Amino acid sequence: MELDDLSRRVEAVSSAYAESHGFERTETWYLLKLQEEVGELTQAYLKRTGQARANGRSPEELEAAFRAELADVLAHTLLLARACGVDMPAELEAKWLWRVDPA
Q1: In the chain, what are the domain boundaries?
Q2: Which CATH number does the domain 3-86 belong to among 1.10.287.1080, 2.60.120.430, 1.10.530.10, 3.90.190.20?
Q3: By CB distance 3.0 to 4.6 Å, which of 20, 63, 66, 87 could disulfide with 44?
Q4: For residue range 16-59, what is the model confidence (pLDDT) as tens digits?
Q5: Which Gene3D superfamilies does the record match to this protein (predicted)?
Q6: Dihedrals phi, psi of 6, to nearest 5 degrees
Q7: How many CB atoms neighbour CB 80 within 10 A?
């Protein structure tokens, strides 16, 4: 799946969620929501690595929670980029991939 397509699909889900719950998504909201998700990822990571209480969850459940939080962080990063008019594929190319030979 292309990053632009993924971003559009995540936006559709987020937009529907905001509309159904009656709140406005501003640039500040996107940033704060991303911060919230990074906190949840940190918590999931600590539990997964035995550095926090697992609260009775199995290793498989902890792994699934960690993976889900990674997805949340990516989704909210894409949402923030869209809200701020950032072309993420172009920025990734400029920042990360310019050094890589595609062959």
Answers
A1: 3-86
A2: 1.10.287.1080
A3: 66
A4: 999 999 999 999 999 999 999 999 999 999 999 999 999 999 99
A5: MazG-like
A6: -60, -45
A7: 19
